[in-house]
Amino acid sequence: MNLPESSLRLGKAIGILLCAAILASHLVSISRWSEDRGVNDDICYLRQAHLFQRFGLGGLDTNFARDDDGYFLAKMKNLSTWVDGQAPVCHTPMSATGKLVLQYPPGTGLMLALFPSGHQVVALYSVCTLIIFLFACAAIWLSRSRAQLALATAFGLVAIYMMINPVKASYSIAPTMVLCATAGLLTARLFAEERQRQRMVLVPIIGLLIGIAVNMRVPNLLLSAGYCAYLLVAFLATRKATKFSDGVLFAVAFVIGMSPTLVANAINAGSPFSTTYSAADVVAPSLDGETIRAYLGDPQSLLVVLSLLWTLGSWHQGKNRLALLLGSGLAINLTFFITHPIFTQYYTIPICALTLWTLLFAFLIPPSHQARSR
Fold first, then answer.
1. How many CB atoms are closer than 10 A to CB 289?
2. Helix 320-338 and helix 349-364: axis angle, to 10°?
3. pTM of structure
4. Which of 45, 143, 198, 270 has CB atoms 3.0–4.6 Å from 148's, for a disulfide?
5. Which residues, at least 6 apart from 175, have a Cβ–Cβ distance to it below 8 Å?
6. pLDDT of 301-313, one tens digit each?
């Protein structure tokens, strides 16, 4: 149901104020965080940031021998599990280079390095939460009816809330959320756009964003799965040169986006395509009842169900191409994580965020020919 313009403006203002209230509460909470909460992953991301601040781009080399100032050793001594003489946590020995290196890609450390030492986590989360708030405001502002306004407001409140729980669980998820929201908006715009020239601009930008996400955490590589499946099917179904060029543009931009990780792999592991993760993280997939039960009993399962149902709903509404992209991406990501023996409360959050932001903006953005005729 469409609202009178004055009522719609009032509703938008109320929605934005509600989101701003959650934002303010979060910023107060975030301002009290400590960077020494005794978590292995945390101090490893901070070590990467420290390397970038000391050596600039030379910080891509994470050889533990470069801890000559004792920064990481001091961090490890704050761990509750610390024992004298223990090996550095989240580091992997590389036989090809003879180095003991960080297992993580460089993106999260680089983001943290943009802020002053000692205040990096608070600053990163504050900035990322503020950006998510702005995306929520954009969604509210795009609303043209009561249903759209209600959905955009509720979505914004949940999206901002999630920037602490569960996003706080890993520093890599905060910037991932921003990239997923941005890619979601542009993907929705891509499917609303009918002009090929504009589509050829949007496709590589989306590919670049997904590639950049890989630098935050390697499993973000799977965020590209739905796009690859859709672009391949679109080309095979039409055999048009424009569809082929879309695939090439996406692939090239994707590789450019993840190039910092490829360079870091070459420096630390001896090859762009060699992983710096330990054997425990690269085991063969297998179905395990305990892992499945863990996902089913975790709150992220609600986001998974919502993503699946909304994607099916978009198919029912005739948005078959969008449903193909999102549905295949969900299927591939969920299959990987369910068959991966390690469970965390945030593994499926990125694909759910990408899917839900895309669906939200697809619901709000009219096709380009309608927008031009208004």
1. 7
2. 170
3. 0.94
4. 143
5. 107, 108, 111, 124, 128, 216
6. 999 999 999 999 9
Question: Which among 62, 69, 73 is positioned nearest to 106, based on CA atoms?
Answer: 62
Asked if the peptide bond before residue 166 counts as cis, ω within 30 degrees of 0, the response is yes
Q: Please write the tens of the pLDDT for every residue from 64-82.
A: 999 999 999 999 988 888 8
CA distance 271 to 263: 8
